[in-house]
Amino acid sequence: MTCFSSTDESAHYGFSVCMLLEQYRAQLRWEEEGVLELGTGDATAVADVVRSLPGLRVAGYDISAASVETARANIAARGVADRYTVELGDFFDQSDSAGGPSVSTVIANPPYIPAPDGHIVMPELWGGVRGNDLVLRLLKAGYHNVVTAVASYSDPVETVRTAQDLGYRVANFLAMGLDYGTYSSEPKVRDHIRRLCAEGRGWAGEDEYMVAIALFTRNPDVPGDRADQLLRALQLDV
Ligand SMILES: C[S@@+](CC[C@H](N)C(=O)[O-])C[C@H]1O[C@@H](n2cnc3c(N)ncnc32)[C@H](O)[C@@H]1O
Q1: Quick one: pLDDT at residue 102?
Q2: Could you tell me if residue 82 is inside a domain?
Q3: Are 163 and 150 in contact (CB under 8 A)?
Q4: CATH label of the domain that carries residue 72
Q5: How much distance in Å is there from the Cα of 161 to the middle of ligand 1?
Q6: Is the Cβ atom of 125 under 6 angstroms away from ligand 1?
Q7: CA of 164 to the centre of ligand 1 (A)
Q8: For 166-193, how does the pLDDT look when each residue is reduced to its tens digit (9 = 90+)?
Q9: Which residues, other chains included, contact 53 with Cβ-Cβ below 8 Å and sequence gap of 6+?
Q10: Domain assignment present for 1
Q11: Alpha-carbon span 49 to 52, nearest angstrom
Q12: Stated pTM of the model
């Protein structure tokens, strides 16, 4: 097993999480409650966020043993082990065993690689046939606030419309163009992405796509809904 590695993507995730937590500090109440994280990877991006936001506590989970080992070392090296913990295991197991969400905010750069099956370069990154299985599961898990990556080639219209059906609004987001990396470039994945986009289930250029880190919220204190702006930023026609 290896650890997820994509420098630009992780940096965008960390920077965006930091900005959204800062912007919606009062409404998300993370200083009182802390936040949960699905999929820490090597934890570098969010360890830097924890270091720059002194009131923040993060409880993370990852199913990859190699990631958890690396994450713990990186967290210790940044001196935030008292406020950023990582457990080996499926995020949804802890969520289910707690009998529902124990905090209101979850953050994630979840697996979103679409492929016909999970036999891909890093199976832990498989997001199901359309790539959005884990983000949909996260949205259905009952959290008030979900800060998550939404990829342009992983059926973002279905993701956003499902979120709306569940009572979420898109408070805000930060979008960035990314070049295909190791995981999207795998021929089996690349061909599948091309098919999904041809079916109208996403957007990708020849070697690029878009990712947004979006705050989906059910909190009435957070105004507005930028769902359609999010989809347009991901190059979808709405
Ligand atoms: C795209 S990587 C993101 C890693 C890190 N957050 C970052 O942005 O650098 C997704 C991570 O989620 C982990 N993962 C996949 N399914 C999971 C699950 N059900 N519970 C917890 N972690 C999971 C993978 O092992 C992988 O490390």
Answers
A1: 77
A2: yes
A3: no
A4: 3.40.50.150
A5: 24
A6: yes
A7: 24
A8: 999 999 999 999 999 999 999 999 999 9
A9: 18, 21, 22
A10: no
A11: 5
A12: 0.97
